Amino acid sequence: MIETAGSEVQLSGVTRAYPEGDGVRRVLDGVSATLAPGSITALVGPSGCGKSTLLNLIAGIDPPDGGSISIGGTDLTGLDETARTRFRRRHIGLVFQFFNLLPTLTVEENVLLPQQLDGRDDAGTAQRARALLADLGLGGREGEWPEHLSGGEQQRVAIARALAGRPRLLLADEPTGNLDGETAEAVADSLVALAERDGVTVLLVTHSDELARRAHRRLTLRAGGLTEA
Ligand SMILES: Nc1ncnc2c1ncn2[C@@H]1O[C@H](COP(=O)(O)OP(=O)(O)OP(=O)(O)O)[C@@H](O)[C@H]1O
């Protein structure tokens, strides 16, 4: 049993606007929610409503214009960019629609990269990376190049990379959006099963009802705010 406790995520009055024409468009207009530790939440909503924007704010990639984002008691909005990057590397796993694997690194090197960047690549890390790849059906594929893998296999590598550092929070932006139906279902099952096993808190942006159904909870972002649905 792996001991990883997910963090509680608290969003309070989060706002974010982008320039539009001569004015600004308030994409997020006071978003508040609490994600329970170890919960899996699907974030849905119409195209352009701000789902990726919100995910990027929670990841600390961008700061919000207002409000606060707290992960496991750490207020991200109180951190500068360097500290947010360090926090993200240490505590947050990210999965993207287009996998974002580095083509010049092998499968295992891709999985280990975030921890190398964080100075945490010891023997235990490599062991966990290999175990995760095996859990994801990629045992024996560690030395291959990403481009030799199918889309579903590449996304499994990205899931291993996201979980290898024992994150407290996993953020996934359309993780099955670039996969065909059957592959998408298998990848979704793996992601949910491993997240539940590790007890990691998960927020998944998705247009897929199949994926949203696997979550414990569904939040809809519409007109700048979140509703339970
Ligand atoms: N860097 C930016 N500069 C200006 N406008 C932006 C920027 N990023 C996003 N936007 C705008 O903010 C709005 C929300 O974008 P976002 O990508 O967060 O939506 P989304 O809900 O994830 O959409 P989709 O489901 O289509 O991926 C869109 O109107 C988009 O054009």
UniProtKB/TrEMBL annotation:
<dbReference type="InterPro" id="IPR017911">
    <property type="entry name" value="MacB-like_ATP-bd"/>
</dbReference>
<dbReference type="GO" id="GO:0016887">
    <property type="term" value="F:ATP hydrolysis activity"/>
</dbReference>
<dbReference type="GO" id="GO:0005524">
    <property type="term" value="F:ATP binding"/>
</dbReference>
<comment type="similarity">
    <text>Belongs to the ABC transporter superfamily. Macrolide exporter (TC 3.A.1.122) family.</text>
</comment>
<dbReference type="GO" id="GO:1902495">
    <property type="term" value="C:transmembrane transporter complex"/>
</dbReference>
<keyword id="KW-0813">Transport</keyword>
<dbReference type="InterPro" id="IPR027417">
    <property type="entry name" value="P-loop_NTPase"/>
</dbReference>
<dbReference type="InterPro" id="IPR017871">
    <property type="entry name" value="ABC_transporter-like_CS"/>
</dbReference>
<dbReference type="InterPro" id="IPR003593">
    <property type="entry name" value="AAA+_ATPase"/>
</dbReference>
<protein>
    <submittedName>
        <fullName>Putative ABC transport system ATP-binding protein</fullName>
    </submittedName>
</protein>
<keyword id="KW-0547">Nucleotide-binding</keyword>
<keyword id="KW-0067">ATP-binding</keyword>
<dbReference type="InterPro" id="IPR015854">
    <property type="entry name" value="ABC_transpr_LolD-like"/>
</dbReference>
<dbReference type="InterPro" id="IPR003439">
    <property type="entry name" value="ABC_transporter-like_ATP-bd"/>
</dbReference>
<feature type="domain" description="ABC transporter">
    <location>
        <begin position="9"/>
        <end position="229"/>
    </location>
</feature>
<dbReference type="Pfam" id="PF00005">
    <property type="entry name" value="ABC_tran"/>
</dbReference>
<dbReference type="GO" id="GO:0005886">
    <property type="term" value="C:plasma membrane"/>
</dbReference>
<dbReference type="GO" id="GO:0022857">
    <property type="term" value="F:transmembrane transporter activity"/>
</dbReference>
